Structures are given as structure tokens and as C-alpha cells.
């Protein structure tokens, strides 16, 4: 026994020693780094590489470590950091142009449109924008279509065929496995739960999907039409007949300019900046340049500020983090912005498909308190649907991109039921109760008619509250709201016609209106929220301690872990949900 104790104490001592050594190195690195010059240098005659193959969020994020403030992080890889960097590059004498090189963009359509807008503005400086791809997805091409010259590899491909999405249905699967979902919903278009009720798409759901896909496709074609000088009708013909399915056809259809190899593309950029072909082209990545630009943008300090509060991800009941919108974090951010005398107005940037009804109501209440004190303007990103629209509805003004997915004013409740599955496996659950409704829900029993009635009553109550909030915030009658509600999904362009948003545009337009409302000529921006991390999380991030999720991923494999994560996500959706109809992947 004493031998084992000695071994354990030795192992523990080594572990603690390694942690202390690691922390000392981090401290030393922070001290040395703080006195150094810029981490990123931009050489003369450089080309900025816009390769965005990392996940693009609206907000890079600010992270604070209370115990170790020297580890605080402020990422500059968010959408608007990248847009600011592109703006800075337009006036940076060291940057001669932008190269969109094998991009494989990992962003939503509205984010891609915003980046497109920044590149169009950059071109006004007279500097070049060129694009090269071994293969272009439709979203890659949508961004690259702003380029002065578009190259494709001779053996490459370009995807231009229109938009599509696919939905799986599980009714028969549930019956065969014995695992089913108990569904209660309100709103004929609230199709988040439809796959568990039917084997095929309903007419109502098909109507709304076709409507918003056509609206998105029209917006994409309009932008490409202007950049490539091709009519929108001709673009539709190209898509219908797949007239860009190989490089030669893409060139003859005027979607691209040159069929060439990558080395020829590099040499063309060298020629454009007057560099000998045998010399190295100076290239800097967007991730590095974003960090550089953030320190060199030269913005003046202003006492007057506009707060930009980002609500990005599913809305959950709780604190929230970098990937979710919790009422805890949102309440703190709104309260600080509301009580800070230097902050004169607030822009709420929403990129959320919705989530918890309770959390949405709590955030709504905090916005209601805030708008009595200061102007609140909403800017919508890829999504501001269901709960995302709930929290937007009572702002002073709502700005959406034409490609924003919004609306989805509907409610559903979903409970997993394993009664038949348990019976198939030889499991029987028995309950003992003192009162008739003591057992409101069991995974092992189907909902009774009385239980379903009570849940339906709760869902209807939330729907009534939701539509009341929208009617009040948007100054519409209940009848008007009912016509555009029922869970129906709209694009920003359609939502403008329905009175759900006030104007089409991006964050810059929302900031303009916020400044006007606060009567500001000049201002600086302060971003929220700030996410706090503890020591355990810090050690996990640096790989010293493995989290249970990491262990599960290693044991189960990536694909099985994703399935487990999805099941866990469903189980964490407590209470009634205001959520976008489904997880979509528009292709």
C-alpha cells in the first residue's frame, strides 16, 4: 500500500510541476511578447490573400481569464474584423491587391454578401482583385465574381446550378426502431418537427422553402449579373443547362476569364505589380493581416461610443458562450451598455436561428429596459429567425441583409419517447404517483391526452406572447402578424415587404442609424459580450487536461461523436422552443 501511495504522490508531483512550468513559460512569453514590435510585418509590394477556409463568425470574440489576465484573448478573425482589414488594405501602400486563392469559404450567404461588398469598395481604390480556383463551389464563385480576373485550373470545375436543400424524414424510422418524438406545435409552417410526423414534405413547407430559395437565388444572380455583365436571365440559362460544368464552358459563358495553372496565376500577379517572374511574390494571409490592421487602423479615440452586442448561435437558457446566446451573457452586456454613460446607442447584431422561448423572453425584457434609455438598432446576419426574431422585434429599427433568413414566428415542443424501443429491448418502466398529474412526462411512456393538452396550452400561450411582442414592436395589428406568422420563414428582401424589417443593409447601415438616433457626429465602437473562462477550460484548450468531450471523441470516432452531440443538443432544449425550422445546408 505504501508503495502505491509513493507512486501516486510522485506522479501527482510531476503533474503539478509540469503545470507550473507551463504557466511560467506562458507568463514569460506574455512578458516578452508585450515588449516586442508588431507580431506581423507587411512587406512592400505585398498581395493580401483572402483565403477564408476557417469558420467565419460575425464576432471574433473577447475572452477573459480572471485568474490569469495576461492570457486574455481578442480574436481578429470575425467577419467585421476581416471587413475592416479589407478597408484598411485599400489605403495601405504596401498592399497592391487582393488574391482570392482556392478559397473554400466557410461562411453563410449573408456573410459572403457582406465580404463581397467590402471587396467592391476596395476596388474603388484602383487596386486589383483577382481570383483563382482549382474548383469553385457556388458560394466561392459568388464571392469571387467581384474579381477583375477570374482564373480556373484547366482540370478544375465550377459549380453553377442554382440552389438546393435536402430534408430527411423519420416517421417510418421511428416506427421501426420504437424511438419516437412526441410533438406539439403551433403554426402551419413551423416545420422544425415535420420530419418526425411525416414521411414526406408538406405542401406548406415546400411553398416556404421554394420561396426563400428563389429569393436568395435572385439576389445572388443580381450581384453576379452586375459584376460579370451577364443578364440574370442568361445566368438562369447557364444554371439550367450546366453551361459552366467545365473550364472551357465556364469561359465561353463569361463566368470566368482565364483557364490557367496556379503558377501562371502567380506570375500574372507579379506582372501586375511590376515584379520579375523569378522573384518571390510577397503574400500575407487575411488572418495575419487582420491582426496587423487592428493595430494600424489609426482610428481616433472618441469618448462617445456605440456598443455592438453580438447574439450569435442557438439561444439557450443559461450563461451562454462563444457558440450560444445565453440570457446571462446578454443581460450583462445590455446592462453594461445601458448604464455606461460613454455609450450613447446600441446595435444588436443577431445571427441566430432561435432556441429557448424562456431565454428569448428574458433577453427581450432586457432590450425593452434598454430601449427606454438608449436607441437600440438591430442588424441581422445570416439568420434572425424564430427566437432570433423575437429578440429583434422591439428594437427601434431593424436592418436586414436581403439574404437574411428571418421570421419563423411559431412555436413547438418536442419530447423524446422510447416506450416501444424499451419494450423491444425487454425493458418495462412502472410509475407510482400521489396525484393525477404528478408524472408530467416520462421517456418510457407516451403522452396522455391530458398531458398533451397541457403542453399544447403552453405552446399556444407562448405563440400568443410571441405574436403580441411582434405586433407591439412592429406596430402591426394581431391580424397582420397572424398573416405573416404561423412559423413562415422569409428572406430579408421579403421581410421588408411584410413589415418585419425596416431597411436592407449591413452593420454599417445599422451603425449609421444608431449614430443619427444618438445625434453623434463621431464615435468609436465597443464590442460585447466578453466571455469568461476558468482554469479548467484554459488547461483543456492548451491540451494539458482532456475534457470528457475530447475523450469521447477519441473513443467513439468523429462521426459517432457528432451523432451523440446532436442527441445531447436535443436533450438540452428545455421548455418550449422558438427555433428555425431545421438545420439547413443550402447548396
TrEMBL record:
InterPro entries to which the protein is assigned, alphabetical: ClpP/crotonase-like_dom_sf, Pept_S49_pIV, Pept_S49_SppA, Peptidase_S49, S49_SppA_67K_type_N, S49_SppA_C
Keywords (A to Z) from UniProt: Hydrolase, Membrane, Protease, Serine protease, Transmembrane, Transmembrane helix
Gene Ontology BP terms: signal peptide processing
Record-annotated Peptidase S49 domain positions: 122-271, 370-520
Source taxon at top rank: Bacteria
Cell compartment(s), UniProt: Membrane
TM segment ranges: 7-32
Signal peptide feature range: none
Active site positions, chain numbering: 190, 386
One GO MF term attached to the UniProt entry: serine-type peptidase activity
CC per GO annotation: membrane
Keyword presence, Transmembrane helix: yes
Family, as annotated: Belongs to the peptidase S49 family.
The protein's name in its UniProt record: Protease-4
Native species: Algibacter pectinivorans
Amino acid at each position: 500500500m505504501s508503495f502505491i501511495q509513493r507512486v501516486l504522490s510522485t506522479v501527482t508531483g510531476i503533474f503539478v510541476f509540469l503545470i507550473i512550468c507551463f504557466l511560467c513559460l506562458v507568463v514569460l512569453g506574455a512578458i516578452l511578447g508585450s515588449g516586442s514590435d508588431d507580431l506581423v510585418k507587411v512587406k512592400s509590394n505585398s498581395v493580401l490573400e483572402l483565403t477564408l477556409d476557417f469558420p467565419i463568425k460575425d464576432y471574433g470574440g473577447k475572452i477573459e481569464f480572471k485568474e490569469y489576465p495576461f492570457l486574455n484573448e481578442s480574436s481578429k478573425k470575425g467577419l467585421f474584423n476581416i471587413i475592416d482589414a479589407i478597408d484598411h488594405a485599400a489605403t495601405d501602400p504596401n498592399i497592391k491587391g487582393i488574391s482570392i486563392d482556392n478559397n473554400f469559404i466557410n461562411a453563410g450567404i449573408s456573410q459572403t454578401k457582406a465580404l463581397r461588398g467590402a471587396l467592391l469598395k476596395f476596388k474603388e481604390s484602383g487596386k486589383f482583385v483577382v481570383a483563382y480556383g482549382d474548383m469553385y463551389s457556388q458560394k466561392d464563385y459568388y464571392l469571387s465574381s467581384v474579381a477583375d480576373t477570374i482564373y480556373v485550373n484547366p482540370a478544375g470545375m465550377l459549380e453553377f446550378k442554382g440552389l438546393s436543400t435536402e430534408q430527411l424524414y423519420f416517421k417510418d424510422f421511428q416506427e421501426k426502431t420504437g424511438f419516437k418524438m412526441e410533438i406539439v406545435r403551433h403554426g402551419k409552417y413551423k416545420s422544425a418537427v415535420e420530419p418526425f410526423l411525416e414521411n414526406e414534405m408538406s405542401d406548406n413547407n415546400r411553398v416556404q422553402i421554394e420561396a426563400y430559395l428563389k429569393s436568395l437565388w435572385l439576389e445572388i444572380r443580381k450581384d453576379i449579373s452586375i459584376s460579370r455583365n451577364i443578364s440574370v436571365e442568361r445566368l438562369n440559362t447557364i444554371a439550367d443547362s450546366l453551361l459552366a460544368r467545365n473550364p472551357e464552358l465556364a469561359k465561353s459563358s463569361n463566368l470566368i476569364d482565364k483557364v490557367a495553372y496556379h503558377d501562371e496565376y502567380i506570375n500574372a500577379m507579379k506582372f501586375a505589380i511590376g515584379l520579375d517572374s523569378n522573384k518571390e511574390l510577397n503574400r500575407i494571409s487575411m488572418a495575419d493581416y487582420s491582426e496587423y490592421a487592428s493595430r494600424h487602423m489609426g482610428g481616433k479615440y472618441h469618448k462617445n461610443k456605440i456598443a455592438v452586442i453580438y447574439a450569435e448561435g442557438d439561444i439557450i437558457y443559461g450563461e451562454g458562450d462563444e457558440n450560444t446566446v445565453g440570457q446571462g451573457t446578454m443581460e450583462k452586456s445590455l446592462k453594461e451598455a445601458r448604464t455606461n454613460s460613454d455609450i450613447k446607442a446600441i446595435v444588436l447584431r443577431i445571427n441566430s436561428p432561435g432556441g429557448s422561448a424562456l431565454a428569448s423572453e428574458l433577453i427581450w425584457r432586457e432590450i425593452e429596459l434598454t430601449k427606454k434609455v438608449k436607441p437600440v438598432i438591430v442588424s441581422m446576419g445570416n439568420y434572425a429567425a424564430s427566437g432570433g426574431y423575437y429578440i429583434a422585434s422591439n428594437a427601434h429599427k431593424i436592418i436586414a441583409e436581403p439574404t437574411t433568413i428571418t421570421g419563423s414566428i411559431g412555436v413547438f415542443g418536442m419530447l423524446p419517447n422510447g416506450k416501444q424501443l424499451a419494450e423491444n429491448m425487454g425493458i418495462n418502466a412502472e410509475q407510482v404517483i400521489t396525484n393525477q398529474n404528478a408524472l408530467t412526462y416520462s421517456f418510457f411512456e407516451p403522452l396522455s391526452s391530458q398531458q398533451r393538452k397541457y403542453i399544447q396550452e403552453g405552446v399556444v400561450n407562448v405563440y400568443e406572447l410571441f405574436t403580441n411582442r411582434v405586433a407591439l414592436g412592429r406596430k402591426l395589428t394581431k391580424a397582420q402578424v397572424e398573416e405573416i406568422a404561423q412559423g413562415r420563414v422569409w428572406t430579408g428582401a421579403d421581410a421588408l415587404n411584410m413589415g418585419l424589417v425596416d431597411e436592407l443593409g449591413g452593420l454599417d447601415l445599422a451603425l449609421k442609424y444608431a449614430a443619427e438616433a444618438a445625434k453623434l457626429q463621431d464615435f468609436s465602437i465597443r464590442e460585447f459580450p466578453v466571455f469568461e473562462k476558468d482554469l479548467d477550460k484554459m488547461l483543456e484548450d492548451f491540451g494539458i487536461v482532456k475534457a470528457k468531450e475530447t475523450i469521447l471523441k477519441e473513443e467513439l470516432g468523429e462521426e459517432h461523436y457528432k451523432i451523440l452531440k446532436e442527441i445531447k443538443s436535443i436533450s438540452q432544449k428545455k421548455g418550449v422552443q422558438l427555433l428555425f425550422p431545421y438545420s439547413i445546408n443550402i447548396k
